[in-house]
UniProtKB/TrEMBL annotation, chains A, B:
It is found in: Cell membrane; Membrane. This is Magnesium transporter MgtE. The gene is mgtE. SUPFAM superfamilies: CBS-domain pair, MgtE membrane domain-like, MgtE N-terminal domain-like. It comes from Aequorivita vitellina. Its main location: membrane. Acts as a magnesium transporter. InterPro entries: CBS_dom, CBS_dom_sf, Mg_transptr_MgtE_intracell_dom, MgtE_N_sf, MgtE_transporter, SLC41_membr_dom, SLC41_membr_dom_sf.
Amino acid sequence: MMQFQLTDEFIEQVEQLIANNDDETLTSLLEEFHFADIAELLHELNTDEATYIVKLLDSEVTSEVLIELDDDYRERILDNLTPSEIADELDEMDTDDAADIIAELDDDVQKQVIGHIEDEEHAADIVDLLRYDEDTAGGLMAKELVRVKESWTVAGCVREMRRQAENVTRVHSIYVTDKHGKLKGRLSLKDLLTAPGRAHISEVYIPKVDYVNVHTEAEDVARIMQKYDLEAIPVVDDNGILVGRITIDDIVDFIKEEAEKDYQMAAGISQDVEADDGVFKQTRARLPWLLIGMFGGLGAASIISGFQEILESFPRILIFVPLIQATAGNVGVQSSAIVVQGLANNTLKGNILARLFKESGLALVNGCSIALIVLLISHFVFHTSYLESISIGAALISVILLAALIGTFIPIILDKRGIDPAVATGPFITTSNDIFGILTYFLIAKLILGF
Amino acid sequence: MMQFQLTDEFIEQVEQLIANNDDETLTSLLEEFHFADIAELLHELNTDEATYIVKLLDSEVTSEVLIELDDDYRERILDNLTPSEIADELDEMDTDDAADIIAELDDDVQKQVIGHIEDEEHAADIVDLLRYDEDTAGGLMAKELVRVKESWTVAGCVREMRRQAENVTRVHSIYVTDKHGKLKGRLSLKDLLTAPGRAHISEVYIPKVDYVNVHTEAEDVARIMQKYDLEAIPVVDDNGILVGRITIDDIVDFIKEEAEKDYQMAAGISQDVEADDGVFKQTRARLPWLLIGMFGGLGAASIISGFQEILESFPRILIFVPLIQATAGNVGVQSSAIVVQGLANNTLKGNILARLFKESGLALVNGCSIALIVLLISHFVFHTSYLESISIGAALISVILLAALIGTFIPIILDKRGIDPAVATGPFITTSNDIFGILTYFLIAKLILGF
C-alpha cells in the first residue's frame, strides 16, 4: 500500500492555508486523508492551528481524529472548544471512546458537555460507562452491539439487524438474549446467511458463548480474548444482562500499553512518559529511580569503608568491585525479566523448590564459566596473588548465585502478595544486588585472605 | 465467564484414563472443552500422553489444539505422528497455520506430509505460502478469504459467498476483484445486507481499500493495521492480484512477540527463551551478555589500576566507585529505553540538535540534584575532604550528562543505520557507561585533587 509520508513541505502548506484562513482549499486538501493521517498532521502543528482544523472539518472525521491523538495534546485542543462543540464530536463517537474522552475533562465541563449531546440515548449510555473503573471490562466496553431476541425469526432478525447495524461500526457477532435481556448465546453472520428465513433464532443460535462480567479486570479480559482467539466478547452485569461488548482493537492497545509499562519499569522509568514529554515530567518519572540507585551506591560506599583493612592491605581487591557489581546487576536483571515475563504470560509452571534447583544450576554454570576466565585474567594480567585470584573467582560464583536467586524470587513473592512483579525489575533489583554482591565479595575476600 | 482452572486432580484423572486406555470416558470428558483449554492440559502431560490424546480426538479439535501449543512441545508430538496423521491435522487448519507448522518439519517429512493432504487446492495453497519469509506479509497471510467479482449482482454474490464462507472461519470483509483477480476494493457485510439484490457489485463496493504487498515487512503490516484500526488487510502480489489476507489476531501475536523481544534485549537475554526452557538453552541466551559485562568490568579494573596514585593517596575516592557506576548505568538505561520506545512507536519527532539540548537539560537537573545530596553526605557522613567531595559531585554531574547522551544517541545512530536499536539497551549500554563513567570520575578527581 502507499504509505503516508508527512513532509515538511506539506506541513508548511497547511500552516500557510490556516494563516490565510483559506478554508475551502484546506477542506478539499484534507478530504482525501485518512483520519489517522490527519491526527499525525495535527501533532506537527501548534495547538491553535490544530484547533482550527478540528473546528473546520466535519465532526464525522474529527471525532475519529481526536480519538487518535495523544491524551495530553487532545486535552489542550479540547480546552479550546466549547462544551457544545465537544458534544458534537462525542455524538459521532462510539460510546467507549466518548466515555474515555469525557473522563479526561473537569467535572463541571463534563456535565455541560453531556447536557449538549443531542442523542439522549447515546448520552445516557456514556454516563453509564463513566461509572466503571477504566481497568475493568466495564471501562473497556462499548454499548454498541447487535442484539436479537431468541423468539424472533431469521427474516425478522435480518430486518432488525439492518436497523441496528447503522450504529455499529463493525459487526463481529450477533448476540442472542431472552426477553429480559439476559445473554443466551450468539449467532454468526455465516449462520444467518445460510439459515432459512422462517426458522426461529432459538433453533439456530449457538448457546455456547464466552463472556465477561463488567467487573472482570482488563488484564483478565485480554488474557481470555487472546487465549480463545476472540475478536469480540460480550459483557454482562451481575444479573447476566447483556450490557456491552469489547472488541479486539481495544485489547491490542491494552496489550501494548502493558508491555510498554513493563519495559519502562525494567528501565527504571515510571510509566507513561515519552521522549517528547517536558523536562519536568521526565524528571518526575526518572529521578526517583536514580535516587534509589544513589542510596544503593552510598550503601555500597559504607560497606567498603567497613572493610578498612582491605583498603590498606589488599588494594588490588578493590579494582574488581566494578566487575562484581556489573555481574550481580546483569544476572539479577536477566533472572527477574524471565520470571516477570513468565508470570505475565502465565507460563510459569512447577513448584518453587524445582525452580530453586534449576536457577541454582543455571547460575552455577554461568558463574563457573565467568569465574574461571576472571581468575586467569586477574592472575596473569593484573598480577593478583593466588589467594586474591581465588577470592575473586569464589566471590563471582557466590555473587552470581545470590543475584540469580534474588532476581527470581523477589518477583515471585511480590506476585503472590498481589503486587505487580514488574516493579521488582530494573533499578530495584540492580540496587539490592549491588549491595549484596559487594558485601558478599568482601566477606569472601576476608575469609580467604584472612585479614 | 467461568474461568477454566486446571486442577491437579483433573490432570491425574486424565493420566489414569490414558493408562487404562479408557477412550470412551476420555472422549466424553474432553468433548466439552475449548481447544485452548485442551492445549493447556497437554502441556501438563508427558509427550506420549499428549500424543495419545491428539490421536484419540477428532482432528477438527486437535488441529486447533496443535496451533495453540508451544513450538518445542508441538514438534515433539509431531515426531510421534506419521506423515499421514499430520496431513489429517493440516487438512483442518487454515493455510497460514498449516504453513507455519509444516515449516517446522524436516524437508523430507514436509514432502511426505504434503503428499498426504487430501484437499489438493489446500495443499497447493500451503506450498505456495511456504515460499515467503516468515517476517513478511506473505509469511503472515492466509489464503482463505471471501472474494467477489465486480461484475456480479448482489444476489449472486450472496449465493457465492455462502459457498466460500464454508472455508473461512471469520468473514471480516469481502474483497472485490476484476475478472483477472486484481484487487479493486471491498464490500462490508453491512452494505451487502442493505443493498438491493439486483444491483451490481461494481455499483455498491468501496473502491478505497488498504492493502499490503506480499513482501511488506511484518513490522510495517502491524504498524499499518494498528494505525488505521484494521481487523483484516488484503495482500496482493507484485501484479496487484489478490493473494491472501492477514487478520488482526496474527498481528496481536506479532506485537506481543516484538514487545517481549525488546524487553528481553533490555534485560540482556537473547530472544525466545522462557522460564521453562532447559539450563543449556538458557545459558546460551544469557551467558554472552554476562561476558560483555565481564569484559566491561575488566576494562574498569584496568582503568582503576591506571590511576595508581589514587589507590595510594586518595583511597576514599575509591569507595564511591559503585555509586558512580550504578548512576551511570541507571541513567543510560532510562535514556535508551525512552528513545527505543519512541523509535518503535514512531513518536520521536524534532531534529537531533533539539534532542541534544533537551537531554542535556534533563541530565543537568537530575545530575545537580543527586550531586548535591551526595556531596553533602560524603562530606558529613564519610568525612571526605572539601576537594574530594567536590570531585565526587562534579564527577556525578559529568557522568550523568555523559550517560544520558550515550544512552540517547547510540539507539538513534543504530536506527539510522538500519540496526534494531533495542540491542543497544541493557548490558550493552550499561557496560559502556560503566567504563566511560569510571574513567570520567578518575579524570575529574585527578584534575581537582591534582595528583
